[in-house]
Amino acid sequence: MNEEPEILIDLRDGVAEVTLNRPRSLNALTLGMVRVLNPQLKKFAADNTVRYIVVRGAGEKAFCAGGDVQKLYEGGPGSRIAQDFFREEYQLNRRIHFFPKPFVAIMDGITMGGGVGLSVHAGTRIAANNTMFAMPETGIGLFPDVGGSWFLPRLPGEIGMYMAMTGARLKAADCVYAGICDAYVPNCHHDDLIKALRGGIDINATLKEFSRAPGPSPLAANREAIDRCFAGDSVEMIEQRLAGDGSEWAQKQLSIMAGKSPSSQKITFRQLRNGVNLEFDDCMIMEYRMAQRAMEGGDFFEGVRAVVADKDMAPKWNPAKLSEFSEQDVEKYFLPLDGGDLTFPE
Fold first, then answer.
1. Do the beta carbons of residue 31 and residue 85 sit within 8 Å?
2. If you average pLDDT over every residue of the chain, what do you get?
3. Portion of the chain with pLDDT greater than 90, in percent
4. Is 273 exposed, middle or buried (0-12, 13-18, 19+ CB in 10 A)?
5. DSSP assignment letter at 278
6. Could you confirm whether 160 is annotated as catalytic?
7. Does the active-site annotation cover 114?
8. Which CATH architecture has domain 7-332?
9. Residue 232 — very low, low, confident or very high, per pLDDT cuts 50/70/90?
10. At what angle do helices 190-198 and 203-210 cross, to 10 degrees?
11. Which of 78, 164, 205, 319 could link 324 by a cystine bridge, Cβ 3.0 to 4.6 Å?
């Protein structure tokens, strides 16, 4: 029996509807999917009959729950698949970021990690009924990649640092409030939206017709505390401010951070503080360096073991404390690679 393709393409009336088609795996992004999407998007960019790209996920649970970290885990430290996956995934992220035609991402369901890279760089990001947006990488010994160093520090205030350090999960109202999504369109209108685009109505008029108010944002209610606590000059200072806050919300964030990889938290802090002053390409080059260093061993493999492979949810981080991971240790993640930095072929 032939398996369905992991990427479905429906090109009609100037609209290329691209569906991530691994619903049983929450549409997790594989290297094979990346290798379909990259050349396909290049073709769409050059095809004068294509006016819009619309990307969505198959099934009711996820847009895309992230990269297929299980495969990276199975490859082991220093594997070729880690080099290939991150290089080609980041090149795809860049292609979407600079795509020359209107690119619409319908972010219904779980949108995390690699799924963020396929959506947040789109020209039009649509929140939906079941949107659950997060960058949870510090919980598996990694860092918020796929352009996280670009978009997270450019969110209002310290929302980006808060998301990176805690893996906070944002629903539709929060995504619109933070500027992660441009509009909220209820699920019942997604097909109507695509039909309108195929009928020649432009995206702005289409959104005006089908978007709705997403309701109150819990993120907004905690904004003052987020900006105050997560503006520290180090991870340690963020924890000190949370500890000194005294509120139930702050204590919860402190508890969440205590479960994350200390080394991941420290490199992530540096990543976001660097990223705010970098151009997009330089952010991706920096992230590729970080990813390859993370794949040399250490907390990534332990994190994926605990969360994905064995599912015991009890990672043994090494080092176990922030104080045991020095600034010199952090700096190593940002040095040029012996094998060459990330490049961007057309």
1. yes
2. 97
3. 94
4. middle
5. S
6. no
7. yes
8. Alpha-Beta Complex (3.90)
9. confident
10. 150
11. 319
Domain edges within the chain: 7-332
Residue indicated by tokens 């952090």: 330
Q: Verify whether residue 145 is a known catalytic residue.
A: yes
What's the CA gap between 252 and 273, in Å, rounded? 24
Cα–Cα distance list, 61 to 16, 23, 107, 210, 256 (Å): 22, 8, 11, 22, 25
Catalytic residue of the set 68, 145, 239, 299: 145
Q: Where are the beta strands (DSSP E) in the chain?
A: 7-12, 15-20, 52-57, 62-64, 103-107, 110-112, 124-127, 132-134, 183-184
Instruction: Retrieve residue 187's tokens.
Output: 């699920």
The H-or-E segment that residue 163 falls in is helix 159-166
∠ Cα 314 318 324 (to 5°): 130
Q: Whole-prediction pTM value?
A: 0.97
CA atoms within 13 A on the CB side of 31: 14
Where residue 322 falls among pLDDT bands split at 50, 70, 90? very high
- DSSP-assigned letter for residue 308: I
Residue 334 pLDDT exceeds 80: yes
Q: Which residues pair with 62 in a beta bridge?
A: 110
Task: Please report, for residues 50, 116, 117, 212, the alpha-carbon distance to residue 44 in angstroms, rounded to integers and kept in the order given.
Answer: 6, 21, 19, 30
**Which amino acid is residue 36, in one-letter code?**
V
Six token digits for residue 78: 């220093």
- Catalytic residue from among 114, 141, 147, 160: 114
CA 190 to chain centre: 22
Does residue 67 have an active-site annotation?
A: yes
How far is residue 129's CA from residue 141's CA, in Å, rounded to a whole number? 30
Residue 316: Cβ-neighbour burial (10 angstroms; 0-12, 13-18, 19+): exposed
In the predicted structure, residue 226 carries a pLDDT above the cut 80 = yes
User: Hey, what long-range contacts does 194-201 have (CB within 8 A, 24 or more apart)?
Assistant: 194/15, 194/17, 194/54, 197/14, 197/15, 197/51, 197/52, 197/54, 197/104, 198/12, 198/13, 198/14, 198/15, 199/13, 200/14
Residue tagged active-site, from 67, 147, 275, 303? 67
Concatenated DSSP letters for 61-98?
SEEE--B-HHHHHHH-TT-HHHHHHHHHHHHHHHHHHT
User: In this structure, what token pair is assigned to residue 336?
Assistant: 């040029």
